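Hey L., structure's done. Input below.
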Amino acid sequence: MEKFKQQKQKQLYKKDKSSIGSWDKKIIPLCKKINKNKEYYTTSSCSGRVVLIKASDKKQKNLFLYRTHNKISFKELLKQIKNIKYPGLIYFKQEPCILHVACNFNNDAEKLLKKARLAGWKRSGLISKKRNILELMSTEHLEFPIMNNRKLLVSEAYLKLITKEANSRLKRTWQKITRLKTTI
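Output:
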């Protein structure tokens, strides 16, 4: 128990290493509730987002051309697309909420996993038995190529459709964050 307590303290007081440098606001209440519990602490989180990203097989700097953790408008999406000067393949992605939680014991992980699944976080499971790390992930996701060589691959009508769909999926993922917070 003492080792877990030390790991938790170290994790919660270290500098944020994410590319945005802070938690996105919609997931803070859930993270705080989890971190108040002596059996758990969060190691990373995202409430869901929409991004325009360079096609790449590996993580590297400057992949994101646009990123928001909020709903988007067609006008904003079109503006961002028109500002892109990158000559390669670009993807549109709407990504679901994701949360990594360190759990003191395996049975603590099982309890939280059950609550998460009941709250709708279907793609969830234990990803590291060494430290009992749970990955909790929702299922709302869109991903497809949108530009290549500075040319739009889809019509404006399609952009309007995906804007509406991405916003709908973000709303569902945020509802799951609220449901999980309520069940903990």
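The chain has one domain: 2-183. The first helix runs from residue 2 to 13.

-- N.
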